[in-house]
Amino acid sequence: MTDYGHDLLFGTFITPTAQPAMQAVELAVVSDRAGLDLVTFQDHPYQPRFYDTWTLLSYAAARTTNVRLAPNVINLPLRMPSIIARSAASLDLLSGGRVELGIGTGAFWDAIEAMGGRRLTPGQSIEALEEAITIIRDLWAADIRGGVRVSGEYYQVVGAKRGPAPAHPIGIWVGAYKPRLLGLTGRLGDGWLPSQAYLKGGIADLREMNQHIDEGALSVGREPSAVRRMLNISGRFSRAGAGFLDGMPKQWAEQLAAVTLEYGISAFILGAEDAGTIELFAAEVAPAVRELVAAERARQSV
Description:
By secondary structure, the protein is an alpha/beta fold.
């Protein structure tokens, strides 16, 4: 069993669909009013059916009050890291410290190239992400004198002025699945943000993937618990109880609590496109998971 001891977070993973025009924003408002912790939006800039994610995040931030907002995950090959840094810090300041940064290497390379992005190999994309994270963090460090200088293979910053500093320490959450990128997440990330749908062997895959993150963290003197483990999830509420996240809210809560206690996942982000599902997740699943996990942690601490 692996429980990294983080507080639990619950959120939504919303498709940034442009039609109906206000659907994505309305679901963000529902998530906020329901008391969830996070609202996240996919980022596929090459998809004409979707809104631009940063524009949508900004609009949603203005329509919400408490919920944190993040791209899930930002498409690095089509967005300069220096602009990502400025965009995230700006929105964090404007929203009162409610922005986090999910980031990924990119996946749909034909579409990325069609939009003017540079096609990279898997290895190159990981190197580019490492350079990007360095640039982003350096630009946020407004209290350090002197400009930012990063002479990378993929990104170069030559004396760029630092700032603005975000309103709070923005977390960088990496979308990762393969060992090398998982190791980078352990070395440099504040969080790990995979999707349940891409776990080919199911939830049990999390154990080995966690090990790669832990090893990466330890290799640079970090505690493995420095990296929050998150998961985009999908399912349906039903009376059938047919499997993982297919049943009544009580079953969902028991299953998600087990995932926290056994695999260390402390943030569950639900892909949902209707208000009723979001409200049920917030009202019945989230508090029950928190109660079950708190009880087990208390039992183990005795």
